[in-house]
Amino acid sequence: MTVATLPGRRSTADIGARIAALDWACLAAELGAHGYATTGPLLRDSECAALIATYDEPAAFRSKVIMARHGFGRGEYQYLAYPLPGTVEALRTALYPKLADIANRWNSALKRDVAYPDELKRYLAACHRAGQKRPTPLLLKYEEGDYNCLHRDLYGDEVFPLQATFLLNDPAGEFTGGEFVLTEQRPRMQSRAAVVRLARGEGVIFAVNERPVAGKRGTYRVAMRHGVSALRSGRRFTLGVIFHDAR
Question: What pLDDT is recorded for position 7?
Fold first, then answer.
């Protein structure tokens, strides 16, 4: 199978309609209150299966990472190459303007003089001018005992403050454990954790690095990290949709 005929490159024009139909006022409120929000099932089973099948197509990727070699945890992931599979490109393109609006409100709350453009291609052009030209969407694979340490996906000076992860297989019958985990470090307080359980095809949108929180003395920054708890059995696949490119 060649890159041009990978299953994930089929027409996915209706993904934009599915994303537009989400309750974005509710999602923005959840992101503001907790630093994450779930989409409900968004990807179809056939789209999930096609992305899982893509994992075994080397031509679709630019690099592979074995997490244990770098102290990142256990398991592995692969960064997709340009051109991205159709499903991934559609998700990235349709999610970006919705999230850019939220990100700009966050920047205003934090008094940052940064405004994200309303189109992904314009934002990626800024990444490329900054020397960040490698695509960052990735597929991750976990097997029994695998996990992902708490981390942030920062690949250069240009960082878009929100990203998304989609679960590609069924937690009801294909694996146990492997919950998505977030932590927030509040000033002068201990870290607080959240565990997010997703259905197949469901996404979680979350803060990459930090988020604004309103306090008694004004808005302050809360540092965020994310990871995956240990898989107890089976195999788990996820898609990570990151909007800034890498050096």
Answer: 42
Instruction: Determine the Cα–Cα distance for residues 146 and 144; give it in Å rounded to an integer.
Output: 6
Give, in order, the Cα–Cα distances in Å from 119 to each of 31, 88, 92, 125: 21, 16, 10, 10
In terms of DSSP H, where are the helices of the chain? 14-20, 24-34, 45-54, 86-109, 120-129
d(CA 115, CA 130): 16
Q: Which two tokens stand for residue 162?
A: 């929100």
Class of domain 12-241: mainly beta
Total Cβ atoms within 10 A of residue 190: 7
Transcribe 199-210 into DSSP letters: -TTEEEEEESSE
Residue 7, SS3? helix
Mean pLDDT of 80-89: 98
Q: Name the pTM for this structure.
A: 0.93
| pLDDT, position 9 | 42
214 vs 37, 120, 186, 221, CA distance in Å? 18, 29, 12, 9
Our measurement of the distance from residue 179's CA atom to the centroid of its chain's CA atoms, rounded to an integer in Å, reads 15
Q: Which tokens belong to 50? A: 């096609």
pLDDT band for position 10 (cuts 50, 70, 90): very low
Angle (nearest 5°) at CA 223 between 218 and 226: 145
Angle between helices 86-109 and 45-54 (to 10 degrees): 100
